[in-house]
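Self-study notes.
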Amino acid sequence: MHAEPHVLHLHSGAGLYGAEYVLLGLIPALAQQGIDGSLLCLDNHLLDEQPLYQRACALKIPSQRLPCRGRFDFATLRALRRVLGQHPNAMLHVHGYKSAFYAWLARRAGEPSIVATLHGHFADTPSMRIYQALELWLMRGFDRVCMVAAEMQPMLARAGVAVQNISLIENGVDTTRFRPDVAPLERADCGIPEDAFVFGSAMRLSEQKHPLGLLDAFAMLLKHAPRSWLVLAGDGPLHATVLAHACNLGIEGHVRLLGARNDLERFYPMLDCFVLASLYEGLPLALLEAMAAARPLISSAVGQVPEVLSGLPAALVPPRDAVALAAAMHEAFVGGRVAQPALRQRVIERYSVARMARDYAALYRTLWNGDRYAMA
């Protein structure tokens, strides 16, 4: 067997969000650890463009599109088997339920080895609950299942995934890209006064991220802090709803939606305070990015967030509590813009992309050398 595996990362995405950015950071970082890999992108038939593939190409990450024209496409299975035939000594790392399904179908006689990462498991619709139940069932037969937050383990155990087959590998961000001394976005270019106190968040505009609740809290704050502005980076299914809600609250003049951005490293330094209002999370990448930029932050106490922020100067509020969120935002406004180097130091020590890549590289090598349970 070869000394090092070649890892094929398989993913199907609807845009560029947390899991996609994890992959875009992980593959180059793995190369620095001596693990070569490439990205296989399942086409999303609902999109005219394929954002993950296009971004990967721009970053010069070895990438390949696989056709996928619906919920199930035999052409996808044939294409995946063809790629696996071209890389007979590869390991397959799947990200998401659709990737897990096609990997399971493509596998023959236990080959290739399959690693799966559970980036999050939050079902907003009946169809998503079905897909995610299928993903959990498939994971019982994979060589290793990686979770990004320890709280996912009971769910995996209930689904029948052997506890010795589960590894915790927390997300990591590029601390050379996300740092406090990056030139910020120009506030004037975003229609924001230079003397404003700017709250902001980077998110997918979806129910999980609770943008409407964030607007409710901001509307309360604005009555007492008229110099405040709220700016959101990202897109998603609630885009039009968010705009309408801001108008209904009468705060649209102090709210800016920037859409999807490829320059988030400049977005965070523009903020006076980062706010995460999510209803549920695993380990949110945007939180780690804001921490790496040393931004003061407020977050709902969900998922892995309280552990990440334990002992640090950051505000935690209950999810869905707009009054508590508004109060925390007002306290941040009164306190003024103050960098928080301790937040960045926590990311450097525990949540860097280099640490994440080291953990995955060690796992790949352990499986490759035949000791399946040494890293559990």
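Second protein, same conventions, sequence then structure:
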Amino acid sequence: MTTYLLDTSAVIAHYRKEPGYAQVHALFEDPFATVLIGTPVLVELDAALKRGMQDERQRRAVVDAYGGRVAEVVPADREAAMAAIAMRNASAKRLPAMDALIAGCAVAHGAVLVHRDPHFDGIPAEHLQTLRLSETGYPTSQDVAKVAKESGVGYATRSRTTSRRA
């Protein structure tokens, strides 16, 4: 089993069917993948949706779908905060605090961070394993598995506790 934690950019790509959608969808469909979302992603997702979706009930339905029914939600705890601090200090690029905390959630839960944000590229690989979504085209699940294998992603033994089907 490989564990992945979706950054807000990955969730939005999937929700809006933007570039990277197929890669995220392949993770949801992969029986050997565990897909997580950190609590900070829920806050960012609501804020991103608010720009184009004024109906609070609609936004809540989307946030609820991703934050519990589609993926398991994990907390941003002390371990995640300490990992976030270490990554901000080691990053070659400016790393916003909320994104550092999301990356910290990935580290705390032994997950690969799935994203499409260039500022994560400044974090050294020894601090964070990442899977950057394709900006063009729609890779297959085999492409995702190949990238994970080539990046030396470790395998977690975390069991799935929620259904990932909406």
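Instructor comment on the second fold: The radius of gyration is 15 Å.
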